[in-house]
Amino acid sequence: TVSIVLFTSDLRLHDNPVLCAALRDADRIVPLFVYDDGLRATGFAVPNRRAFLADCLEDLDSELRKRGGRLVVRGGDVVEQVRKLAKETEAVALHVAGGVSRYATRREERLRGALEGSGCRLVVHDAVITAVTPGELLPAGKDHYAVFTPYFRRWSAAGVRDVVAAPRKVRVADVSSDPVLPRAEITGVSPGLDTGGESTGRRLLRAWLSGGIAGYEDGQDDVAGDATSRLSPHLHFGTLSAAEVVHRALREGSSGARAFVRQLAWRDFHHQVLAARPQSAARDYRSHGDRWRTDKKETAAWLNGRTGYPFVDAAMRQLRHQGWMHNRGRLVVASFLTKTLYVDWRVGARHFLSLLVDGDVANNQMNWQWAAGTGTDTRPNRVLNPVIQGKRFDPDGSYVRRWVPELADVPKRYIHEPWKLPDKDRARLDYPDPIVELTEGRARFEQARGV
Ligand code: FAD
Predict the structure, then answer these.
(1) Residue 189 domain-assigned?
(2) For residue 72, how far is its CA from the centre of ligand 1 (angstroms)?
(3) Confidence at residue 224, expressed as pLDDT on a 0 to 100 scale
């Protein structure tokens, strides 16, 4: 007998309940990945994530080969490819991880329809992409938690599922496979993009658990120190399992580990919001009737890291260069766009998704809404001041100097406010004046929101 595993955002062998269930079901499996035309048509498959994905698939194939198997890759419509393979192999089951985006739930419905009456049953597995299944924890009388703190309390008390071991042997059905598109053939990739794949993810996790995690509580906002785990792309592609990361971090036991686990709960929190309100990927979760401004020049300055606010510009340039941005940077640039410039959060969310290697519908859209005050933030009208944030989280300006080389020689006391330099020094810099006065931006926003 044969069963099919459809890999989606769970590109791993360790702690993969989907794979383990398929192996229990049949003596041979089809470990399948489909380059899905439908997903490509949504514009989601951008160069940075395609490049990271190439690493993931190569590593998955190589790890499967070590166990006597291999990866089966196909292109086309995912449902059609599954239907064809199920027929060809007379598969008894198709196993897939449950997703929360509209795309994932629609795919699930289509798979169910396509397999109906075929003898191949569809099994959707929970708590594979998140540590806790979206919808499992509910406040009385409601269909999701809208506030993080009570969610986190329940989440911590509930605990996450047990970890399952990686299989030792994998037997694969005799079916053809297309090649993996090599990373080197993908153009338009950020030069400093991280390497993907489960082996890399596991190495990073080990290093993080025995090193950085202990200092996470104090260091998480030190933008220049890069003192966060940088595991987000691995969690996004599922080369690391969120449940396993939670267990191993809790075993480490420090206060840093507890602070880190809290961030993983934020990930689950946003997923359960999106699962309950899939329309909030595109629409305000909580509307204030905003009449957003459209200003092409200011928006272009923001996109290109030329706003004249060094901390904002450094973060925007880090995004372009690495396909990743520090969380503190994400908060500051998002507040700047949506509150100081009062430009629609969707403009920023779209730009982030075009570059972020960890770009994720749940985390990106819900964090953008949080920052814009249209989401779950209980203080929706707070505005972050990029000068104060810069002085606080990049006190000696190393982050700014790294990403905005025009400012490399500016003395520390002016690094977050280069417009205050003496005229002759200011004139020598090829760096713009601020595109907007912070106090004006704030006043405009507060007036619009009726604060
Ligand atoms: P760490 O600080 O080491 O945290 C560990 C893990 O916890 C992260 O890998 C991530 O999975 C999770 N996490 C941490 N903070 C958050 C958060 N606020 N919300 C949800 N999960 C969190 N994260 C994404 O994974 N994908 C996105 O597309 C994304 N877009 C964002 C957009 C905006 C405007 C903002 C403010 C935040 C966004 N985040 C997103 C959340 C956060 O910035 C990143 O997860 C984090 O910076 C990744 O770096 P790290 O792995 O070193 O994080």
Answers:
(1) no
(2) 31
(3) 92
Confidence of residue 371 (pLDDT cuts 50, 70, 90): very high
Write the residue with the smallest CA distance to atom 47 of ligand 1. 327
Does the Cβ of 404 fall within 6 Å of ligand 1? no
Q: 55 lies in which domain range?
A: 2-127
The residue from 276, 308, 335 where one domain ends is 276
Question: Quick check: 42 pLDDT over 90?
Answer: no
236 CA closest ligand 1 atom index? 25
- The stretches of 26-134 forming alpha helices (DSSP H) are 37-41, 47-66, 78-89, 102-115
| 320 falls within a domain | yes
Same domain flag for 215 and 310: no
Going by pLDDT thresholds of 50, 70 and 90, the confidence category of residue 111 is very high
**Same structural domain, 422 and 444:** yes
Q: Tell me the mean pLDDT in the region 102-123.
A: 95
- Is residue 209 located within the same domain as residue 350? no
Cα–Cα distance for residue pair 208/252, rounded to 1 Å: 10
Phi, psi (degrees; rounded to nearest 5) at 428: -75, -15
d(CA 373, CA 379): 7
What pLDDT does 40 receive? 86
Q: Evaluate: CB of 93 within 6 angstroms of ligand 1.
A: no
Same domain, 341 and 398: yes
3-state helix, strand, coil in the chain (%, to 5): 55, 5, 40
The CB of 351 under 6 Å from ligand 1? The reply is: no
Mutate which of 363, 368, 382, 393 to test ligand 1's pocket (most atoms within 8 Å of Cβ)? 363
Model pTM score = 0.97
> Is a pLDDT exceeding 90 seen at residue 133?
yes
Question: Is residue 307 within 6 Å of ligand 1 at its C-beta?
Answer: no
Pocket test for ligand 1, best of 358, 364, 389 (most atoms within 8 A of CB): 358
172 occurs within a structural domain = no
| Ligand 1: centre distance to CA 27 (Å) | 39
Residue 43 pLDDT greater than 90, yes or no: no
The b-or-e profile of 369-392 (16+ CB within 10 A means b, else e) is bbbbbbbbbeebeebbbbeebbbe
Q: Please tell me whether residue 343 adopts helix, strand or coil conformation.
A: strand
Pair (112, 144) in one structural domain: no
